[in-house]
Amino acid sequence: MQPSPTANATKRKLALFESGHLLCGLDIIHVQEINKNIAVTAVHRVPEYVRGVINLRGEIVTVVDLRTKFGFAPLSQEAEEQIIIVRLGDENIGLLVDSVSDVVIADEKDIEPTPPNLAGVPGHFFKGIYKLEQSLVAILNIEELLAREFE
Fold first, then answer.
1. pLDDT at 151 over 60
2. CA distance 27 to 52
3. For residue 81, what is the DSSP state?
4. Alpha-carbon distance 49 to 75, whole Å?
5. pLDDT band at 148 (very low <50, low <70, confident <90, very high)
6. What's the pTM value of the predicted model, to 2 decimals?
7. What is the pLDDT, as a whole number, of residue 78?
């Protein structure tokens, strides 16, 4: 017996990743791919949180460092970071994160409102909080996070 369409409408898949000391989730529908060990080319006269650009199969993709965007200290140079490629409108954008860990299925009824300030990060960057057994996941509001820079 298949679940009813309304049952699936209340669930969402979240890709989990860490940025600084914050465990974040991103709706999987936004995720195009996840990469690591890609050379990022610095670009001048951009906001501090724009790490640079990468060449992704011939497409130039802007890379946003979430640690810097959230106001956290940068990772050490030798640390291994990953880039989550997300689709916003008709453009791919890279999110530089510490690590990508898992995919979970979250029930909408278990997602709580985001506080105004979450671990020092403005709450409007997030859509809500999802509770796992051992931790909290801050669900990223990708549109709000990138809207001002990439309209």
1. no
2. 24
3. -
4. 13
5. low
6. 0.86
7. 64
What six digits make up the tokens of 6? Answer: 């309304």
Least confident of 37-41, 61-65, 84-88, 102-106: 37-41
Domain residue ranges in the chain = 11-145
- Classified by CATH at the fold level, domain 11-145 comes out as OB fold (Dihydrolipoamide Acetyltransferase, E2P) (2.40.50)
66: DSSP letter = H
Paired tokens of 87: 């689709």
Report helix, strand or coil for 82. Answer: strand
Residue corresponding to tokens 């209340």: 10
Alpha helices, H only, 35-75: 66-70
What are the residue ranges of helices labelled H in 10-98? 66-70
44's tokens: 């001048």
CA angle at 148 for the pair 147 and 150, rounded to the nearest 5° = 65
